[in-house]
Amino acid sequence: METETVLKDKKILAVDDEEDVLDSLMEILWMCRVDTAASFEQARDLLESRTYDMVILDIMGVRGFDLLEIASRRKMPALILTAHGLNIENLKTSIRNGAAYFAPKERLGEIDLFLADILAAKGGKKSSWALWGERLLDFFGRKFGEDWRDKDPEFWKSINRY
Q1: Terminal alpha carbon distance of the chain
Q2: CA 11 → CA 22, 41, 114, 144, distances in Å?
Q3: Which domains can be identified in the chain, with CATH numbers?
Q4: Which of 39, 56, 72, 126 is most buried (CB neighbours < 10 A)?
């Protein structure tokens, strides 16, 4: 999949309280039309007044889960991008609240691939969580331990996404 072609001219909202992360996202996603927000209030106003093909949300510092609720209600696929909030409970909360993807900031350089996965899933080929699993399940296994999903098998079985 040619990510540049898939993402060309897509409208993206990137929300993070770290300006350097927003700058990096704008650089990586040069082929997209990217709006940025560095606060909850600014992001909320944009989410409520505009429509985006996808939304990138940090959890910490910008009330990312509250913004996820708005994005989900407005049917805008959201990717959670986090560093300090990188834990199993936040992953599960993201899934429960309608996120399409959950990625660590240390993999920021691959954000274009993750967004392309969301669009591919929207096209009906596979669920975004199946594609997430193909790209990041090994990462999370190394981060949380190989048996990390065994601690709540009913949850992971119930989503049946990867």
Answers
A1: 20
A2: 15, 19, 15, 33
A3: 3-151 (3.40.50.2300)
A4: 56
Burial class (CB in 10 A: 0-12, 13-18, 19+), 92: middle
In tens, the pLDDT along 49-106 reads 999 999 999 998 899 999 999 999 999 999 999 998 999 999 999 999 999 999 999 9
Residue with tokens 């399940």: 137
The label of the residue with tokens 């594609």 reads 131
Cβ-proximal residues to 119 (8 Å cutoff; 6+ apart), any chain:
6, 7, 10, 53, 54
- Map tokens 């990137």 to a residue: 14
Q: Are 115 and 12 in contact (CB under 8 A)?
A: yes
Type of residue found at 159: I
Using only C-alpha atoms, what is the Rg of the chain?
15
15 closest CA partner among 51, 49, 41: 41
